[in-house]
Amino acid sequence: MLEKPLFGSKKYYGWMTALIALIGVGVICFLYQLYVGLGTTGMSRDVSWGIYIAQLIFLVGVAASAVMVVLPYYLHNYKEFGRITILGEFLAVSAILMCMLFVFVDLGRPFRLLNIFLYPTLNSIMFWDVMVLNGYLLLNIVIGWITLSAERKGIRPPRWIKPLIYLSIPWAISIHTVTAFLFAGLPGRGYWLTAIMAPRFLASAFAGGPALLIILSLIIRRFTKFDPGTKAIQMLARIVTYAAIVNVFFFFLEVFTVFYSQIPEHMDHFKYLFFGLEGHGILRPYMWASMSLAFVAILLLILQQVRHNERLLGLACVMIFISIWIDKGLGIISGGFVPNPMHQVTEYSPTVPELFITLGVYAIGFTVLTVLYKIAVAVKEEVRA
Amino acid sequence: MESSRRKFLKIAGLSVLGVGAKPVLDSLVQAGEPTYATDQEALEGTHWAMVVDMKKCRDDCRDCITACHRGHNVPEINNAKHEIKWIWNEDFKHAFPTQEHEHLAERLERQPFMVLCNHCDNPPCVRVCPTQATFKRKEDGVVMMDFHRCIGCRFCMAACPYGSRSFNWFNPRNYLDDTNPDFPTRAKGVVEKCNFCAERLAIGKIPLCVEACKEKALVFGDLDDPNSEVRKILRERFSIRRKPGLGTGPNIFYVI
Ligand code: SF4
Ligand code: SF4
After folding, report:
1. Residue B32, SS3?
2. Cα of B177 to nearest chain A Cα, Å
3. pTM of the prediction?
4. What backbone torsions phi and psi does residue A87 show, to the nearest 5 degrees?
5. Exposure check for chain B: N or C terminus, fewer CB within 10 A?
6. Residue A385 confidence (pLDDT)
7. Nearest CB partner across the interface for A126, out of B95, B153, B169
8. How far apart are CA B101 and CA B97, in angstroms?
């Protein structure tokens, strides 16, 4: 199966060339960052994590969302997801890979990374995050590959794979929960100090990830002979709808607690994000855009006619995706660090090299995703033919 | 470390059994790993703390900051985003953000407060560090940093509710003119903070900032010793700590 990604259409070569070019630029920027120091980024003493860690949170969500196809298929025997589970699993593989790369490029001393394993620190959530991410990556590679090989040979997957598949379900939940724990449990950071952080993360993951999967399915259907199936896509659309509603609901729970209690240390972060604080508020337009997109998309998705129209469905999914990307990719991190524990406002915005490194990591992820999807789609086309 | 301690216990045990204490102890000294200080010289204490007497502290004075930053090769970077700070000045409303109010005594409102790492009893920075590069010394409660082990993940910076940690966004050596050869300089990509002058305590000296303060506004001592100067002050005067409600147990006390 490994030879599949080598051959393809002109468009395929063009896409891969573009990705590799982006990776190249990203690598150069990363080497520059290594040489000069993390001062090349927009991060600071006050906002000590930025877009890299934000992407980590976002992509952990994408990875965790694979469970939304695996669970109905294997636990509830929802056959329609049969063709799409592999897409979910491979999406998880590339997302986790990107997560790890984002941790790597964020370290001040990346080549000391092994210290995490040499001096395992059981009370550090970061240790557990690395552990569960690695485990999840391994699980999805093994599960995806074994089931796909079996499908190609036209045989049933070996029996030992079943327990691994069941294990991958709680594991998916764990990766996002542990990632939420990185934040929820730090004293003096009011925006993050909330028990609903993990559920909120999961809800947004289960909306954003399947939305991405729908978009990818629509693209695959357009460009290849493989059809993930209308029924499967419609089921995913329902999942996206419910999860998006729950996500907004959770957000309002948070807003209620914070603003009804009136504790400044908790309110000020929200104020900063949505209204600005002490004259600072670069994220304001983004946060409102995220809110509005979520609302409009939910309205669209609730209407059956819209959901059944694949063009509109695709549009709604793009809106959900962007909305969640802004919330997690920008809001969560900056919102937590601003104002700082001494109640001073230092704003953050990424620099150009930082953005190119981010794009580079995404390009690596998309390269891996394309290769994996190419294999999967080729096998599916073959089996069907 | 561990093995040498075990060796010591074994040898000490032998000597108790009366197998000629003198030669055994001699062999211990010879086997000696590099010794930085002998116990006699080191300051003795099991719970170091500091009292900052704001009645004595002079607004315009920066003696403690200069002494600390010189002694520890802390670079001077003129960009608030990239600064390295071990001990610095902060307004009351920023040092004590939850205790500020409109009718604060005028003196407090304009007086700069000395802030530094609180060497917390229950330090969140230690709890989150994935490599144990940040650790708390059991014997005296000093929260230390191993610059060689730190991977620069900056989790500790997110965890410290006092903004006491700085990260080397650039190579700090580029910002140092003359360096103190007795203390290491750091490299880019690691976190650093006040170490309560652990290197001085080991040779029987008090922290640099305390020594440098001519007004005697900074007092250093052992909280476990009821006769210590810090205990005496805390007994007699009203003191506050930064964000006590978070349960970190800061060991820097302010009398105001
Ligand atoms: S003040 Fe901050 S850096 Fe110092 S021990 Fe407490 S939590 Fe750690
Ligand atoms: S930056 Fe260094 S000291 Fe801080 S948590 Fe990470 S490894 Fe530990």
Report:
1. coil
2. 19
3. 0.90
4. -65, -40
5. N
6. 67
7. B153
8. 9
